Amino acid sequence: xxxxxxxxxxxxPEPRSVQDSGLSTSxxxxxxxxxxxxRGVALGVxxxxxxxxxxxxxVDQVMEFLKREQLCEVKGASAGFGQSTYEYTITGKxxxxxxxxxxxxxxVGPAPVPLEDYAEGIRRQPMLTSSIHEQAMRQALSHLVVDxxxxxxxxxxxxxxxxxxxxxxxxxxxTAIAESLGRVVxxxxxxxxxxxxxxxxxxxxxxxxxxxxxxELKASGNSAVGRQRHDRRWVRVKRPVIMTGGELTLExxxxxxxxxxKYYEAPFQMKANGGMFLIDDFGRQQVRPRDLLNxxxxxxxxxxxYLTLHTGQKIEVPFEVLIVFSTNLEPRDLVDEAFLRRIRxxxxxxxxxxxxxxxxxxxxxxxxxxxFDEDSLAYLLREYYIKLNRPLRGCQPRDLLDEIVDIxxxxxxxxxxxKEMIDKACKAYFVKL
Length: 433
Hints:
alpha/beta; Arc Repressor Mutant, subunit A; Rossmann fold; Helicase, Ruva Protein, domain 3; five-stranded mixed beta sheet; five-stranded parallel beta sheet; 17 strands; 42% helix; 16% strand
């Protein structure tokens, strides 16, 4: 399907030496020493697996140094041949050194990749390999009932790969549309590093909450995967869709320094690189909307962002993110026109028409195996909308049918669109304001 990211276009090759890893020997020595300090005893291959670097050419060089400096020693060997099967144990001198190292930083895990390699990897994995066309967009959002006019505005916004402002009354599907764009339209997969190194400090990028890990591709005859071993410091993931709401602050959009562990957690937009960052409930954050928009001026225009280390040093990172603002508030109450101009596409997700409402209701009935009835829907619209001058909302068919299912379960009967069920559901659902 045109526009979809069918697979990773970037496959970082496995380093064959310490120099290839982009990390200093001293950094790797400290990392391995902390692993030995925690484990006490570890096979060479286990150490290599934990830091996601090959034993031959990289880890073996580190182990030779540690043995030479009497920071570790070989305790024995398991079944097998070669130094990778040696059992390494930390010495008293090594324990003292490991404690000193841990005071400077307690990160243990896959070795990070240099900031420069991270930037190259992100830019070589664009969100869209080609433009998304109308047919592909319709198919991608076919599980939602979306007005044609709105679809025609969303398509160009996604193709821009920059920013989108969704606004309108609550309950009409702004969040559902945005999430579907990220998970279905951008879709695909990419490689992200577990962590990034800059100036000897570690920034954790991958986390199990915001990233969905995918199985590694199996090597096959003529494929790129078959011709090379990839750098295991990069993990294969679904393109990220990260959503934040009222809890968002300016501080969470910069590097988060852990005073105890002494390493950084990447901010939301860095974790979202290659995918989508959805700011839901825009305008309800503790920070002023204008300040939040000011924060995005440079990244949206330049495609890079500046983050600040706790030392005050600023670093440049890629900003390859489709950023989506979603709000229930009136745009004019949030910011002035000059600020809104900086957001490329403004799309109102308005109340559904009666026909769209009917389509949503029928679709929700099908999901619950409830027989759809036109006369009952006409009764619902007449008695609970038209007579009361109540606006339609896209979420209401789903909610009312869920009410009907709950009532039917309590009564021990099958759910249906009877007038009795509709009356009970509406009385339980609607509140006079």
